[in-house]
Predict the 3D structure of the following.
Amino acid sequence: MVPVVLYRDEALVLRTHKLGEADRIITFLTREHGKVRAVAKGVRRTSSRFGARLEPFMFVDVQLHVGRNLDIVTQAETVQPYARAIFADYGLYTAGAVMLETADRLVEAEREPSVQQFWLLAGALRALSEHAHAPGLVLDSYLLRALAVAGWAPTFSDCARCGEPGPHRAFSVAQGGTVCPRCRPPGSTAPAQETVDLLAALLSGDWAVADATDDRCRREANGIVAAYSQYHLERALRSLRMVDRTSPAAPASALTGPTAARPDGDSPAPSPAPPSATVPAAPSSISATEGALHGSHPNP
Ligand SMILES: [Zn+2]
């Protein structure tokens, strides 16, 4: 007799893939077990006992049965239904999609606990779903902190290369932050001081400073965060192309985006190209079949 091995954990749903006629493979970021991929049987049937609980963005308490290859989801209870608010708002959705994909890439190995990444993502999804701050700021703060936890903390005052006390004018993605005139490599940028202050506030979580900034400052900060993230993730974040951070309102043509996905499809959400995105298009090394994030219709 093979013993039945069950375990419970809290988990955030990162993405889903179709499997067979009615099942899905769910990629979770769990609190105790790191990244886990597991099969949810019958989840695509309307009568599924899982309901909408295993959609991207959901925070669930799951019970899993250890399988030969993939584990099997045997129970799922909602802890926080973040997906409801996030799927209902295009700005939240596009920001959230980048977060899930970033977490998926930063936590590469399965079953290696990443407690800090788990709570960082849970906190960011909560802030998004509660409209606590502008979605672009929540996203940029999440990216800076997730990269910092992964070992790539940027500096926004002292020279990233020689440590000379700042403030310094130049910023170098490759050097990891602000650089003094002596260390400044070709190709560094010279962001406004308010932009550097905003970046520091986003990294430290100083929301009073971040919320008070204007759009021009946020755009510049966003460009730096996007470049910094892409550099350090090595593989570009495909979802960055979807995010229109240049205007506070969602573009009209994009309003049908997330909700227009087939209710039962696992294809990536449509990627409308923002007309004036500051984020460079990602030179994609990611195959089309990999990383499909969006699988389901919003919770009715
Ligand atoms: Zn220096």
Remarks:
- Helices lie at 82-87, 90-106, 115-129, 135-149, 193-204, 207-211, 215-233.
- Residues 159, 161-162, 164, 179-180, 182-183 surround zinc ion (CB under 6 Å).
- The two ends are 43 Å apart (CA to CA).
